[in-house]
């Protein structure tokens, strides 16, 4: 089968791209069939970070429930909670705080 963790030039994986665009069913399928939910692209931007940045609360909840690192920061030091706050994503902020993100 296809490599679920293959990346494009900037390091974006299929899970990253699906998370960025809020495609929960695709993220679920990929993670449940062995794709790396933590694989960050260039700059240390993880699927959880980009889902938080873009306000995809259902994807954030799934990734957190699947064990994604809630504290994983980018190379610039931004966490998923930080970027959700910066972008005014209240539903994501609530999800992260309720899951114990600091």
From TrEMBL:
<dbReference type="InterPro" id="IPR036770">
    <property type="entry name" value="Ankyrin_rpt-contain_sf"/>
</dbReference>
<dbReference type="InterPro" id="IPR002110">
    <property type="entry name" value="Ankyrin_rpt"/>
</dbReference>
<dbReference type="Pfam" id="PF12796">
    <property type="entry name" value="Ank_2"/>
</dbReference>
<dbReference type="Pfam" id="PF00023">
    <property type="entry name" value="Ank"/>
</dbReference>
<protein>
    <submittedName>
        <fullName>Uncharacterized protein</fullName>
    </submittedName>
</protein>
<keyword id="KW-0040">ANK repeat</keyword>
<feature type="repeat" description="ANK">
    <location>
        <begin position="10"/>
        <end position="36"/>
    </location>
</feature>
<feature type="repeat" description="ANK">
    <location>
        <begin position="43"/>
        <end position="75"/>
    </location>
</feature>
<feature type="repeat" description="ANK">
    <location>
        <begin position="76"/>
        <end position="102"/>
    </location>
</feature>
